[in-house]
Design a protein that fits this description.
Elements (H helix, E strand, L loop, with lengths): L2 H48 L8 E6 L11 E7 L11 E10 L2 E11 L3 H11 L7 E3 L2 E7 L8 H19 L13
Antiparallel strand pairs: 1-2, 2-3, 3-4, 4-6, 5-6
Helix pairs in contact: 1-3
Length: 189
């Protein structure tokens, strides 16, 4: 990038930085509000399918990357996440919302719903347990998620698509016997 381009970016930033930051904040809050609402509507069924009680108080808002310096243009998450679900990764148990993922060198937007495990072996056990019912699952280190493309012109379908992905998880977790069918109980010795 040449000096002239840097100066153009500086000029543009001087004019638009505050509005751009406000727009990002408002966008993130809107996505999280909608995803939290859909997750709360499915929380009881999801908890029953997992075989554990899920509380709305365990839902946190999540953005990754969280800081512009960490953004490389290849991925992003804006979600509501469930934290501290027993036998899943305590910090990153489950995410429900938007995910941009790299496909053929381009970041593509979609609706995502997924679960993350404490260890790679638990992630592999999940892969084996999910088997045929996991068609369409995408692996992410230690976790699995469903993803459905969301072109910007289809924004109004965000909540319905997320609801469908969560219901897909409910069905899959029931099929495999919940967390007990995937992740071994830890020894208390």
């Amino acid at each position: 990038m040449g000096l002239e381009n840097n100066l153009d970016f500086l000029r543009e930033g001087l004019n638009s930085y505050m509005n751009a930051m406000l727009a990002l904040k408002q966008f993130q809050l809107e996505v999280q509000k909608k995803s939290k609402k859909v997750l709360e509507q499915n929380l009881k069924d999801l908890g029953q399918a997992l075989g554990t009680r899920l509380e709305a108080t365990a839902i946190q808002l999540y953005v990754n990357p969280s800081h512009p310096s960490k953004f490389d243009g290849t991925y992003a998450w804006i979600t509501s996440r469930l934290c501290n679900v027993p036998r899943l990764d305590s910090a990153e148990s489950a995410h429900f919302g938007l995910r941009w993922r790299e496909i053929d060198g381009e970041a593509v937007l979609g609706v995502a719903a997924g679960f993350w495990f404490r260890t790679a072996s638990d992630g592999n056990a999940a892969k084996n347990a999910f088997g045929r019912g996991g068609d369409g699952l995408i692996y992410d280190p230690f976790g699995w998620y469903f993803w459905d493309a969301l072109p910007p012109e289809d924004a109004k379908s965000f909540e319905a698509k997320l609801d469908g992905l969560i219901k897909k998880w409910v069905e899959l977790w029931r099929e495999v016997g919940g967390l007990n069918g995937v992740v071994k109980l830890e020894s208390t010795d």
